[in-house]
Design goal:
five-stranded parallel β-sheet; single chain; Beta-Lactamase; kinase; alpha/beta; phosphorelay sensor kinase activity; transferase; phosphoprotein; binds magnesium ion; binds adenosine-5'-triphosphate; Rossmann fold; Heat Shock Protein 90
């Protein structure tokens, strides 16, 4: 049993007391008693009872029916009428106030108990229903889709705010109109009229057709305009399995399409930027690698001109210098080809390479530069070390870049010594090449940054040497690292996988 707080409105004081005792026995609490309509309305407002037992005939101007109407309108408190006479006219007037029950006087306690319980249950279930309706209204108001409910004849019953905005109709104007008048759908491409989607559902009963794409024409818009929408429609079926209406839900695809288009464009832009960056890096790489042979060509061509300007030029000497020019020009061509291959991430011309011999050859290429920079070169090159299968030109560029960086790190005239040491050592399955210098060294924080393309601390540096070097090593399946040297300078070291036995 539900225990309730009850207000008694009864002009017969003896009856009122009697009811009060009965209610207390049932476990209810009587929060107030009145014999007069106006006072009853006031007490209902101040005590907010769960139920009012209301006599129809009362003292004063206002009868019980009028008092019940006011209480219902302002508070939604359930009212049970108590009456000694129930002619049709009175019952009809009382019914308009939607009472929760009648008790015909004189009544017995069990009767009263039943009517009160029924009234309290009904009120609780009405409150639950109202709550669920509020939830449902709040949901419909906050979703981004348009929602239109239709009756079984396909006329509009309800539409949410989004549906109002998209169709150009207010819910009030649309109420009772055929759906096809309010929701005008045409074919997305051909602009031909489409059948009202809910009519299809109503005709076919519980069957829900698959979603469809259409163009919704808001009120007063020409057939060429409209919003592209996705429509979904289902039937509403009652407890007895009968069709009581349909619900049409539609979402605006314009925004979704705009987002998809923006995403596609952003991806294309990104790919374009990626290509530009790659081309920029490629151009920088070509400039970087060709610079060294070009400088050598210019120097040798100068020497050659000097020889030729002698009264009796020595053809033998001149020939040697011209041969060097030819060699450097060929090397520049090879370098360009190898960079192109590097950009495509394939070794240009794979073959068997003896790393110790390659280091010696590379040092020979820059002997003049090393002498000019007053660098003392030490080598510890393991003879007969295992051979690497790879691109000779690329591997030579790698060693050359490390040597040139070492020379540049020791450019400071204040340095007490300029020592470059290169070691090759074969290990189980690997060959290790170390390039050590006694230069300015690398700050711990920069150890990763120096390998990034275009990172440089030199006024005329391109910042490409190490990035190209790392690409070359990785393409050959190896690793290139930098560590601080002892007591000063830096150590660059790479390992490459080797093929047992060489060629
Ligand atoms: N042996 C080294 N000792 C000290 N710092 C070094 C050494 N090698 C490289 N670095 C640092 O790493 C940076 C990047 O080297 P990287 O070879 O990639 O470019 P760069 O030498 O500056 O220019 P370039 O593209 O002309 O070679 C250098 O600017 C320098 O700061
Ligand atoms: Mg460099």
């Amino acid at each position: 049993m539900i225990a309730a707080r009850i207000l008694i409105v009864e002009d017969d004081r003896i009856v009122a007391r009697d009811i009060q005792h009965q209610l207390s026995r049932m476990g209810h609490v009587v929060v107030g008693m009145s014999a007069n309509g106006e006072e009853a309305v006031r007490l209902a407002g101040s005590h907010r009872p769960d139920l009012v037992l209301m006599d129809i005939r009362l003292e004063g101007e206002m009868d019980g029916i009028e008092a019940a109407r006011r209480i219902r309108d302002s508070q939604r408190i359930p009212v049970v009428f108590l009456t000694a006479y129930a002619n049709d006219e009175v019952v009809q007037r009382a019914s308009l106030t939607e009472p929760f029950g009648y008790l015909l006087k004189p009544f017995e306690e069990p009767q009263m108990r039943t009517v009160i319980q029924m009234a309290l249950y009904k009120h609780a279930s009405d409150a639950r229903l109202r709550m669920s309706e509020r939830r449902y209204a709040a949901t419909l108001a906050s979703i981004r889709d348009g929602v239109i409910l239709c009756d079984p004849q396909g006329r509009v019953d309800f539409m949410n705010r989004v549906a109002e905005t998209m169709t150009g109709w207010t819910a009030m104007e649309a109420a009772g109109q055929p759906l096809a008048t309010v929701f005008v759908a045409v074919d997305e491409e051909t602009h031909e009229s489409l059948e009202d989607f809910s009519a299809l559902v109503l005709r076919s009963g519980a069957f829900a057709p698959p979603d469809r794409l259409s163009r919704l024409l808001p009120r007063g818009e020409p057939a060429s305009a409209g919003i592209v929408v996705e429509e979904r429609c289902s039937a509403i079926i009652d407890d007895r399995g009968e069709l009581v209406g349909s619900i049409l839900v539609f979402s605006d695809l314009t925004q979704r399409r705009q987002i998809a288009e923006a995403l596609r464009k952003a991806q294309a832009d990104l790919a374009h930027i990626g290509r530009l960056t790659m081309m920029g890096e490629l151009a920088a790489a070509v400039a970087h690698e060709v610079n060294q042979p070009l400088m050598a060509i210019v120097t040798n061509a100068g020497t050659c001109l000097q020889h030729l300007s002698q009264p009796h030029p020595d053809p033998g000497k001149t020939r040697v210098v011209v041969e060097r020019i030819v060699r450097d020009a060929q090397r520049a061509g090879d370098v360009v080809r190898s960079i192109h291959a590097l950009a495509r991430r394939t070794p240009a011309d794979p073959g068997w390479v003896d790393m110790s011999a390659l280091v010696a050859d590379t040092l020979a290429l820059v002997r003049a530069e090393l002498r000019r920079a007053r660098v003392v070169v030490e080598t510890d090159l393991q003879a007969g070390s295992p051979w690497v299968h790879g691109d000779r030109v690329q591997l030579q560029q790698l060693v050359l870049n490390l040597v040139m960086n070492a020379v540049e790190a020791m450019a400071d005239p204040e340095l007490p010594e300029r020592r470059l040491r290169i070691v090759t050592a074969g290990e189980e399955g690997w060959i290790r090449v170390r390039v050590e210098d006694s230069g300015v060294g690398i700050a711990d924080a920069d150890v990763d940054a120096i390998f990034r393309a275009l990172y440089t601390t030199k006024p005329d540096g391109l910042g490409m040497g190490l990035s190209i070097g790392r690409s070359i090593v990785e393409l050959h399946g190896g690793r290139l690292t930098a560590t601080p040297g002892t007591p000063c300078g830096s150590v660059f070291e790479f390992v490459l996988p080797v093929s047992a036995g060489g060629v």
